Structures are given as C-alpha cells and as structure tokens.
Amino acid sequence: NDSKKSDSDNDSKKSKSVNDSKKSDSDNDSQKSDLDKDLQKTAAVGTHEDSTTQNVASRENDIFTEQHAEETGSNQDIVVDGLAGTEPNPTSHSDGSPVPQEAEKHGADEFAQTEGRIINMANLDIGDDMVKAKLDDLKNSSSNPVVVNLSNTPLTSDCVSSVLDLLKSKPSVEAILLGNTRLGDDEVSELVDGILKLHNEKVKASEENDGVKELQELDLSNCKFGNIGAESLAHLIKSTIDIDTLNLSSNRAITSDGWMAIGNALEDNTSLETLTLDYNDIGNEGVEYIANGLQVNKSITTVDLNSVGLKERGGECLMNMLKKNTTIIELNLEGNDISQELKEDMQKYIKLNKTMVNEKEKKGTRKNQLF
C-alpha cells in the first residue's frame, strides 16, 4: 500500500508539473495575444501617446548602445576589440626593462610569460610564414589562452591550418577573433570543416573524460566571403557545437541564398545567444529568412541588424517574428528605413519578452532554493 501511495504521489507531481508548464506557455501566448489586440486598436485610432514615443525612442537608443557593451563586458579588462584597433605594444616593463617588439620576438618563449588569458596578434602585417610561425610557437608554448585575437591580420589557407592546429592543441581557447582577415569562401569553409571535426572529436572525448571545453565565440566579420562560406556556417549553426556568440558583420557578398541557409539553420540551433549581422546586404528578402529562423529559435537573446537595407516590409517580417519569439530582448535596427511607429510596436514585444525572461529566472531561482 505504501508503494502504491508513493507511485500515486509521483504521478500527481508529474501531472502538476506538466500542467504548470502548459499554463505558463498559455499565459505567455495570452499576453502576446492581448498585446497584439492592443496594437491593432492603437493602429485603428491612428494615434500614439507622445510620452510613449519619447520613452520608446529613448529605450531604443539605450538598447542599441548597450548591446555590444553587454556582449563583451566580461572581457573588457583583458580583450581589445581588433576591429576598433588595439592598444599599442608597451616599450618597457614596469621595472624599466625594454620589451621586445614584434619583429624581435620569436619562439615559444614569446608566450611563456603570458597569464593564459589573451593572445593579441591583431594588426600584424608580417606575411604568411611569420604568422604561421607565431601560431606554431603559441601551440608549443605552456600558455593556455582563452582568447586569440588575429583581427586585421591577413590570413591565407596555410594560416587557417595553423589556427586549427592551435585550437586542437589548446582546448582552453574559448574565443577566436578573425575579423577583417580576408579569409574568403574557401578559407571560411576550411575553418568551419576543421572546427566541426574538432567538435566531433571533443564530443567523443567528453564521453570518456567527463566534459571537454569548446569554442564559444567566433568572429568572422568583414572576411569577404559569400554564399559558399555562408552555407558552411549554416552547418556550424545547425550542429551541436556550443558557440554562443557569432559575428558575421560586413560580409556583403552574401546574397539571399546564403541568408536562407543561415535562417534555416537558426531553426535548429540551441546554443547561440548573440548574433551580429550588421552592415550586410540582407534586405527585405534576406531578413524574411532570418526572421523565420528566429521565430522558432529558443536561445538567441541579442540580434544586431544595424544598416542591413531593411524597409517597412522587412520590419513587418520582424514584427511578426516577435509575436511568436519569447527570448529576444535586444534588437538593433538602426540605419534601416523602418518607420518609428513600427519600431515602437516592436519594442513593446521586446519589453514583454524581457518581463517573461525575468519571470522565468525568478521561478528557476525559487526551484533551486527548494531543492
């Protein structure tokens, strides 16, 4: 009798948990539906309160300026954004002794004294052989870097092989910054194929060794690749690799076919949190594919679509996406030809998403306290 009673209690708890989950989803849908009706009424009347206009516009500016600060805030103390320029190399140590400059430094000793956090090889114009030599030296050093910055350093296929060798030998690397390295389609495809191969090897190793670190951030901004590279990246996005930050800014050779591949991949992605697509020629057609992917995506919270050639129709696609999406809380639409009224309506859905995300976090905290 005690056993039957225990089973009955367990079934009751499971049933209650399922019902609570269904109720939460139903409440979210109801809130979205109510907001949609309110917006339709507002559109019919054709008026917006002046105070709301000012508040939404102000909040938009806050969102757009805070986005990148939140993205990189945890690394501000150790990372310099390669696309914005890097700090000059110091000419002397704190004790006054001279620091060897780039042309003088060579060998694994160059990295032996690093603290294992940041390796900055940005803005180097030293040729393939020297870049490969530096990557090989880092691979053979005792350093365990977390971020490797090669931004603004021209890379070729040979250099990509060295980057992949480095990622294999240094599993500590969580971010690889390759912005403005002129990789092109073939090199991006080679890089992605190599990363996926390493991922499969690490998955197998994690089963044997109880978890292995993986790459979490990839910056391929302004790398001059087109649809071939985009289709390769779609395979990366669709995979189970735990990349949470992906920067594809300023790759204007990608057409609607490439954005369709990426949009389709977003539907299956479960790890991305920040997606940067600004300064691409996405247009209304391309953003429709992106919006379709984001509509069902459950992990992405921040999307940058600054200056991607959107007009009102593209904005309406994003509006329809936000009616279904429950996770996006930051959306940058600066530099697009979208009406202020439509932007304000989208911000209302984003505000609702923020409220729902906060409620879920509070519920999660309460559950952790109970158990």
Give a brief rundown of this model.
It is built from 11 helices and 8 strands. The chain has 371 residues and is of the alpha/beta class. Residues 1-40, 59-71 have a biased composition (Basic and acidic residues).
Give an account of the 3D structure:
Strand 1, helix 4 and strand 2 (147-149) form a beta-alpha-beta unit. The longest helix has 44 residues, at 2-45. With 371 residues, the chain is α/β, with parallel strands linked by helices. The protein is globular. The two termini are 27 Å apart. Helix 4 (128-140) runs parallel beside helix 5 (157-169) and helix 8 runs parallel beside helix 9 (283-296). It has one domain: Ribonuclease Inhibitor (Leucine-rich repeat, LRR (right-handed beta-alpha superhelix), Alpha-Beta Horseshoe). 56% of the residues lie in helices and 6% in strands. The protein is built from eleven helices and eight strands. The model is unreliable at 45-114 (pLDDT under 50). Residues 1-40, 59-71 have a biased composition (Basic and acidic residues). One of its GO terms (molecular function) is small GTPase binding. This is RNI-like protein. One of its GO terms (biological process) is nucleocytoplasmic transport.
